[in-house]
Write a structure and sequence with these properties.
The protein is an alpha/beta fold and about 130 residues long. It has helices at about 40-60, 75-80, 90-105; strands at about 1-10, 15-20, 25-30, 65-70, 110-115. It has one domain: Nucleotidyltransferase, domain 5 (2-Layer Sandwich), CATH 3.30.420.10. The longest helix is centred in the middle third of the chain and has 18 residues, at about 40-60.
Length: about 130
């Protein structure tokens, strides 16, 4: 099965939206205390992506051998995750390891695609109450 995953984050909240066929699931969470007001926007985007994939597996939306089109509004993330470019950010490196590990364990096909920030449907969830 194929899914489309959008994710976003800031220093206070993370969010993700996953589309599967005719179904859309939206989620947001407050940043964990260990990260709240301590991570950059880019780092929070990595957290949101990692948690979004993990959550989607946990609630049985994403299953073994599925394809996930990951929509990214950050060129830096796209280059790091899809193009295998390195980063000096140790936090981002760890999140990439976790994301890659989930993909290997579940035999997921992650396809990273660049989008404009205005096309990131998870962004609006950062301000929801």
């Amino acid at each position: 099965m194929e899914h489309i995953l959008y994710s976003d984050g800031n220093s206070k909240r993370i969010s993700w939206l996953i589309k599967t066929a005719d179904s859309i699931k939206k989620q947001f969470r407050e940043q964990a205390d260990i990260y709240r007001d301590k991570v950059t926007v880019l780092q929070s985007k990595y957290i949101a992506l990692h948690v979004g994939i993990f959550w989607s597996i946990g609630v049985f939306i994403i299953k073994n051998q599925d394809t996930v089109r990951v929509k990214l509004d950050s060129s830096e993330m796209l280059n790091h995750l899809a193009e295998k470019e390195t980063t000096a950010d140790e936090f981002a490196k760890k999140r990439k390891l976790f994301i890659d590990q989930l993909a290997r364990q579940r035999n997921l096909n992650l396809i990273y695609e660049k989008i404009d920030p205005s096309e990131n449907f998870a962004s609006s969830l950062l301000s929801e109450r």
